[in-house]
Amino acid sequence: MLRVADRTGPHIRCLMRPGRAELPGTRTGGALVPGPPAEFDGLTALVTGGASGIGLATARLLAARGARVAIVDRAIPWADEGQAGGLDAVAQASGAAGAGRPGDEPDAQALYPVVADVTDDRAVRSAVQTVASALGGIDILINNAGIGAAGTVEDNDDDEWRHVLDVNVLGAVRMSRAALPELRLAAVRHGQAVIVNTCSIASTAGLPQRALYSASKGALYALTLAMAADHVREHIRVACVTPGTADTPWVARLLDAAPDPEAERAALAARQPSGRLVTADEVAAAIAYLASPLASGVTGMALAVDGGMSGLRVRPPGQP
Predict the structure, then answer these.
(1) In this structure, is residue 315 part of a structural domain?
(2) Average pLDDT, the chain
(3) Residue 209 belongs to some domain of the structure
């Protein structure tokens, strides 16, 4: 049986379960991802924004490869004790959860969910303390929580600028700041620890109608490099992924709001040389590479997962 326990009062809610299930192989979201299935054995990862999309895909992949994984998100509907039995319901589910597609429901025994808002410093510190206490420290931090914004520099008011920067930049700052003491201990235990930030192609390329979002992800990219320099001698690696347009719940909501969702999807796919959106699983695989102990020589870098968007200039289809 699963238990639900309130560990830290009103700022954070943690849903407890005994043990951790061993997951066979490395299959996530229906896709078989190559890699040693136990490369993360003995390590604990904390993934923010882990209730859906790239965060959930990453959490599931790390768990499949042997990690103890905690997810932190503002809301985790499939782990809410008030929704049809909480995790017990998830364990029996065959319908939508996570990213909202069949097959996306997380394994109830594999992930340790903590409800907290990255804009609340007290909640962030409580979340880190709770995860470290419950799972035996933190070796890997994935700063994935983020929100989008559309428009030119004229279109978003000051409040929206503050909110997006608060989540996308300061959220990573708060979480990293709180986790660094645990990461230093992990580096002593295992010889290294790692932070991976989810940036965006918008941090390195100019995209229309993305002024605020690009500014926030550009700041996170610069922060990644600065942190890598600050902590390299502590054996704490810091790197980031820069996804292109990914097939995630946020993009799905943007498409739903467009006058012609199918035409907008086609336009987004066409701007990537591969001719399609990247998947959450593909981004998760890149994050897992950077987080892996096997990538111990990798720090201060951005790994593009963008279907060639950042580096290729191909001719339109049909032209040689």
Answers:
(1) no
(2) 82
(3) yes
Q: Is 221 a catalytic residue?
A: no
Range with the poorest average pLDDT among 64-68, 128-132, 313-317: 313-317
Beta strands in the chain (DSSP E): 13-14, 27-28, 31-32, 44-48, 68-73, 111-115, 140-143, 193-198, 236-243, 246-247, 278-279, 302-305
For residue 56, the enclosing domain spans: 9-305
In whole angstroms, what is the distance from residue 271 CA to residue 153 CA? Answer: 22
For residues 203 and 220, the answer to whether their CB atoms sit within 8 Å is yes
Under 8 Å between Cβ of 241 and 290? yes
Residues 6+ apart with CB under 8 A from 63: 20, 23, 69, 107, 110, 111
Evaluate whether 292 touches 39 at the Cβ level (below 8 Å).
yes
Q: Torsion over CA of 23, 117, 289 and 311, rounded to 10 degrees?
A: 140
Say if residues 209 and 280 touch (Cβ distance below 8 Å): no
Q: How far apart are CA 305 and CA 123, in angstroms?
A: 31
Give me the pLDDT at residue 21, please.
Answer: 35
Does residue 310 lie within any of the structural domains? no
Using CB atoms within 10 A of its CB, is residue 20 exposed (0-12), middle (13-18) or buried (19+)?
Answer: middle
- The one catalytic residue among 112, 213, 221, 289: 213
Number of domains forming the structure of the chain: 1
Q: Is the pLDDT of residue 203 over 70?
A: yes
Contacts of 281 (CB under 8 A, 6+ apart): 28, 29, 31, 33, 57, 61
**What is the rounded distance in angstroms from the CA atom of residue 46 to the CA atom of residue 307?**
27
In this structure, what CATH number is given to the domain that contains residue 180? 3.40.50.720
In a domain, 269, yes or no: yes
Q: What is the pLDDT of residues 281-315, one digit of tens each?
A: 999 999 999 999 999 999 999 999 988 788 887 87
DSSP conformational letter for 101: B
- Reading the block at residue 175, the tokens are 């979480």
